[in-house]
C-alpha cells in the first residue's frame, strides 16, 4: 500500500495504446477494463479485466521493457490499484505470491485467447455474436446491454452490416430482443 496509487478512472478513458511503455501494473478493485487489439479500422476484443484481476499483457511488457501490443479502455467507471513497474519487478523475487497471481492470470488469459481463436476460425457469426452478448451480460451485470451494432462489430472484428443482419436472425429465433434501451438477452 505504501507504493500503490488508487485511482478512479471514468468510463471510456483510453488507458493504454499500442506502442506505449507500461509504467504501472493495475489490479482492478471495482469496474471493468477492456483489452483489445486493432488492425486498420477493425478491433478484436481479447479480454476484460474484472475486479481482483490484473493485465497480464502489461505485466509481460513491463518484465521485458518492450512497448505494449494492445489497447485498453475503461468499459465502466473503474477503481484500480496501480503499482509502479520498477517495484513489481523486485517484488516478483521477494514475494513469490506475486508470481502465482500473474501465472494464474496468464493461464486464464491464454485459455480465453485460445477460445477466441477457435470461435473466429470455427464458429459461425450467429454463435459468436450470441456468446459475446451472453459474456457481456455476465461481465457488466446488465440486461439489457447498451451497446451499438458498430461497437459489437468492432469488438468482433467484422462489419456493422453483418452484426445487424445476424442480430435480426437471433431476434427472430427468440434469443434476444432489440429495444430502444439496449439488447435484452432472453
Automatic annotation (TrEMBL):
Gene Ontology biological process: regulation of DNA-templated transcription
The protein's name in its UniProt record: Crp/Fnr family transcriptional regulator
Keywords linked to the UniProt accession: DNA-binding, Transcription, Transcription regulation
Gene3D superfamilies, sorted: Jelly Rolls (2.60.120.10), Winged helix-like DNA-binding domain superfamily/Winged helix DNA-binding domain (1.10.10.10)
InterPro entries given in the database record: cNMP-bd_dom_sf, HTH_CRP, RmlC-like_jellyroll, WH-like_DNA-bd_sf, WH_DNA-bd_sf
Source organism of this protein record: Aureibaculum algae
GO MF, one annotated term: DNA binding
UniProt xrefs under PROSITE patterns: HTH_CRP_2
Amino acid at each position: 500500500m505504501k507504493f500503490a496509487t488508487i485511482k478512479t478512472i471514468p468510463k471510456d478513458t483510453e488507458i493504454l495504446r499500442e506502442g506505449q511503455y507500461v509504467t504501472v501494473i493495475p489490479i482492478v478493485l471495482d469496474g471493468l477494463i477492456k483489452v483489445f487489439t486493432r488492425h486498420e479500422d477493425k478491433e478484436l476484443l481479447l479480454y476484460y479485466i474484472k475486479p481482483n484481476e490484473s493485465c497480464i499483457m502489461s505485466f509481460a511488457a513491463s518484465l521485458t521493457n518492450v512497448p505494449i501490443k494492445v489497447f485498453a479502455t475503461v468499459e465502466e467507471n473503474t477503481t484500480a490499484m496501480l503499482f509502479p513497474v520498477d517495484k513489481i519487478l523486485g517484488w516478483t523475487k521477494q514475494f513469490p505470491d506475486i508470481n502465482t497471481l500473474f501465472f494464474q492470470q496468464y493461464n486464464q488469459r491464454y485459455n480465453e485467447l485460445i477460445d477466441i481463436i477457435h470461435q473466429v476460425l470455427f464458429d459461425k457469426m450467429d454463435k459468436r455474436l450470441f456468446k459475446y452478448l451472453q459474456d457481456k451480460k455476465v461481465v457488466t451485470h446488465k440486461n439489457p446491454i447498451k451497446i451499438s451494432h458498430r461497437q459489437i462489430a468492432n469488438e468482433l472484428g467484422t462489419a456493422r452490416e453483418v452484426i445487424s443482419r445476424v442480430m435480426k436472425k437471433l431476434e427472430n429465433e427468440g434469443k434476444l430482443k432489440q429495444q430502444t434501451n439496449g439488447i435484452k438477452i432472453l
